[in-house]
Specification:
Structural class of chain A: alpha/beta
Order of helices and strands of chain A: HHHHEHEHEHHEEHEHEHEHEHEHEE
Organism (chains A, B): Flavobacterium caseinilyticum
Keywords (chains A, B): DNA-binding, Transcription, Transcription regulation
CATH architecture of the largest domain in chain A: 3-Layer(aba) Sandwich
Oligomer: homodimer
InterPro entries (chains A, B): HTH_LacI, LacI/GalR-like_sensor, Lambda_DNA-bd_dom_sf, Peripla_BP_I
Pfam families (chains A, B): LacI, Peripla_BP_3
Strand content of chain A: 15-25%
Largest interface: A-B, 53 and 53 residues
GO molecular function, one term (chains A, B): DNA-binding transcription factor activity
Strand order of the largest sheet of chain A: 2-1-3-4-5-11
Number of domains of chain A: 3
DNA sequence: AAAATTAGTACAAATGTTTGTGTAATTCCC
DNA sequence: GGGAATTACACAAACATTTGTACTAATTTT
């Protein structure tokens, strides 16, 4: 365990003062060339690197971003993270990642832990529990303490901060309309995320599309739940009704629906067309038939969120107004929807 | 932007010294109960939290781990990370995550950046480029500087440090043997990761199994490449040979093989049995037929790696010998292998 | 040659903590 | 009541850094 070189050590060994070493290494004109060269050579020899903690303390910032997401195994969040990491790296920031596991308490605890000097700002997607309980106090507290937060995807309307969202309502509306245009008359809605803000918005988009086309709502073919318990059974029950289209609000639901439909002997897309929200990297594209999906551009969401945060951190202005950026989704047509 | 409370501010406003405030908040017996109460109440009012950077400087450690993985969109790495995060959180550590994108340069740069006070130790899976070039100097340099590293999955044999690996050779041997036991005579090997240490070991396990069963090696049905260019064509060419079993060395290969086999009219598992390495959360389990996989226990790998690192960081001993932990894989039989 | 300038350093303060040592004032005991 | 012990706090150093100011020579200027 070699001790790392510090200014002090170098100063002592070269019989100069700490400030001289610091200034020499920073090429200050105050220091003579001779001394500079001597110090720089010695520093190189000792493999000196300025200790970041000392710098952090002096500068009162750490060039580190805290990211809190509910679950890294969800590939949507993994994609967002990779977008965040890309921008952060480009701009010289590090990223501390914490997983809330959908727990409001861990979320709050993490915010507390990191907001006392460790990080300069947060990027967060709100945990399920916090959304369920509409419990957003912990966010406001942190923001009031002067640490900026950017929320993405699962946001808290009431909290005043930068936000990056997908146009959930519109894309659900458009996707449903697409199914209707394909000739579907009985379109089932499958949602196991009805507790999330995004789930609610998507469901509303679906309903709006029905309304626009004067299609009456059939509650037997609408599944809105907030748990995955018995999901298969529930979907199975929906599929017992007369159905020629399925709109699923997340990847889980859509993949499950496809499997169950196939097992029940439906032909996809001949009998039933399926569209699902998804941003998995493996699943939907590779199933047979491959699933038509609403692509959420996870990486772009991450990039935009990181840019928003870093811009705010580096802005000279005190009171930059908060922004909400809406990322447009895109319908990726694959084999699970029949052609016009 | 409210300024955060510091000991100094509190001291000034209560007309006591900084040390008195610090000691009061830490319940030192030196301070009278009256003063303690007064100070604690005021601190609470001001929502005082000790600044972590100051503490870090004092303690010369940050309780932060740096994780460097090649790609977070690979769900194996996402699983490992979630294991790391779990243990880190339990033990009060934060995790800085960096993505090397398979670049040796970014890997080296990240190690440099973080090893000067930001983190206490690293957990790393080596980038493809570094493995290809056998370029491990950057790791040794960091370790020599006194920052411990734990490597997992893709390791560098020559670097002296803690390691967590999967028993790649044995599990490839066993999987291949399993196919042989099922009656397969012509087992293809598909690898698009022949540049990685793990890819080579798995291929060797396959060959050993053939040898053990006196099956001669047929190079026409062995695909060993280090790129995914034209992967489909290459696999297609392999499948033009007489084949009744496929052993694929990663998820990509196995999923591609299944699709191509099905398209070529093979019945799975009747005509061909398929086993693939995989740790995707969505794909293999959900395909039809579902794929029999070698499960790599990503989460456990992450947990073990984090424990190794934290134990070392917190050990009083100077020279704890380095350890290499082997995690056993498990064959998850699904529909793509026929039954005995 | 004395004064002014300049170069090349050292010193000190600041960032926020913790902690060992020092120092008044009070209490104790005989 | 006076020396010892105790109480309750202040002071200072340390962690690693940057940076403004002060100081000491040497050089230049007049």
């Amino acid at each position: 365990m070699k001790a790392k070189a510090t200014l002090k050590q170098i100063a002592k060994e070269l019989n100069v003062s700490v400030s001289t070493v610091s200034k020499a290494l920073n090429d200050s004109p105050e220091i003579s060339d001779l001394t500079k060269i001597k110090i720089k050579e010695y520093a190189k020899l000792k493999n000196y690197k300025p200790n970041v903690i000392g710098l952090n303390l002096k500068n009162r910032k750490t060039k580190t971003i805290g990211v809190i997401i509910p679950n890294i195994l969800n590939s949507f969040f993994a994609k967002v993270f990779s977008g965040i990491e890309k921008i952060a790296d480009e701009k010289g920031y590090n990223v501390i990642m914490c997983i809330s596991n959908e727990s409001a308490e861990k979320e709050a605890h993490t915010l507390e832990m990191l907001s006392n000097g460790t990080i300069d700002g947060f990027i967060v997607s709100v945990s399920e529990e916090a959304q369920k309980n509409q419990d957003y106090e912990h966010f406001s507290a942190i923001i009031n303490d002067g640490t900026p937060i950017v929320m993405f995807d699962r946001i808290a309307e009431d909290v005043d901060c930068d936000k990056v969202i997908v146009d959930d309502f519109d894309s659900a509306l458009n996707s449903t309309q697409h199914l209707i245009d394909l000739g579907c008359k009985n379109i089932a809605l499958l949602s196991s995320i009805d507790n999330l803000s995004v789930g609610k918005l998507r469901a509303e988009g679906y309903l709006k599309a029905l309304e626009n086309n004067s299609i009456s709502v059939n509650n037997d073919i609408i599944l809105r739940t907030d748990s995955e318990d018995d999901l298969k059974d529930k979907i199975e029950r929906v599929l017992e009704n007369k159905i020629d289209g399925i709109f699923a609000l997340d990847e889980n639901d859509s993949v499950a629906a496809l499997r169950i439909a196939l097992r029940k002997g439906f032909k996809v897309p001949e009998d039933i067309s399926i569209i699902g929200f998804a941003d998995g990297i493996l699943a939907s594209r590779r199933l047979s038939p491959s699933l038509t999906t609403v692509s959420q551009h996870g990486i772009e969401i991450g990039e935009v969120a990181a840019k928003l945060l870093i811009d705010r951190l580096e802005s000279k202005e005190e009171h930059v107004p908060y922004e909400t950026v809406v990322i447009k989704t895109k319908l990726k047509e694959r084999e699970s929807t029949r052609k016009l």
